[in-house]
Amino acid sequence: MILEDGCIENIVVWVKNNIWFILFFTWGIPLGIYRSRFRKIVYQTDSWLINIKPYFIRETKALFSTMYPENEEYIRFRNFYRFYLGVYSVLFGLWYFFR
Question: Do residues 68 and 58 make contact, with C-beta atoms less than 8 angstroms apart?
Answer without folding.
Answer: no
